[in-house]
Amino acid sequence: MSTPTRRRPSPAVYRRRRLVALLLALLVIGGIVAAVIALWRPGQSAPSTGGTPSASHSASSSAPTAAPSDAPAPTEQTSSATEPAASPTPEASPGIAACSTSGISVLAVTDKDSYGAGELPKLSITLSNTSDHPCLINVGTATQSFVITSGADTWWRSTDCQSESSDQVVQLAAGQTVSSVTPVVWDRTRSSVDTCGSSRPPAPSGYFHLQVSIGGIQAADTGMFQLR
Question: What spans are recorded as compositionally biased (Low complexity) (predicted)?
């Protein structure tokens, strides 16, 4: 008895089998995707909670906009705090004292040591604060005095015929030195309060001394010069 020959499937059968297998694979993949989506659906509440910080952020960002309305109150507190500085107490900012004789050095100055015939001496004052602190002093013409003597004889005073005078209080820093801006010119004559509008006798040749004072402080030494 002969064994029957086994017939091989046709190509069409192979194609149908492959198509069925592909459909089954797609169904399996679709089921897996659906299961994953179903598992993640409860977790969608997490993004909703993530939206809460954004809402709180918007609320916090709106808070600074309210700050400008509150700004005037701190401004008023700041201005009231600075008021004491505008009017300091004597303890917080002590006043500057007047210059004392012990802390001021006054020097009589002439532009030359010797003057020929017809040359007029120019007289000045140099003032120095020798103390360690600033002080106030009146350097106006009302407090300036120039006196020229020869031996015991007083020849000329700047105050004898002074028509106008003024006060000028200035502050001298510690160690500061100042000098007269415009010197006083002596006309080489004898002065007195009675000869301001008349001719006066001229000074002879010889040695003279200049004595000065300013702000009530007199120079310790005189300045000597010669008229030829």
Answer: 47-94
Label residues 147-169 b or e (16+ Cβ within 10 Å = b).
bbeeeeeebbbbeeeeeeeeeee
Token pair 């059968």 is found at 13
Q: Which CATH superfamily is domain 101-227 in?
A: Intracellular proteinase inhibitor BsuPI (2.60.40.2360)
Q: In whole angstroms, give the CA distance from residue 137 to residue 134.
A: 10
CB-based contacts of 222, cutoff 8 Å, min separation 6: 108, 149, 209, 210, 211
Do the Cβ atoms of 156 and 200 come closer than 8 Å? Answer: no
**Residue 16, SS3?**
helix
State pLDDT tens for residues 17-76.
777 777 777 777 776 656 555 555 544 444 444 444 444 444 344 444 444 444 444 333
- Output the CA torsion sign for 215, 216, 220, 223: positive
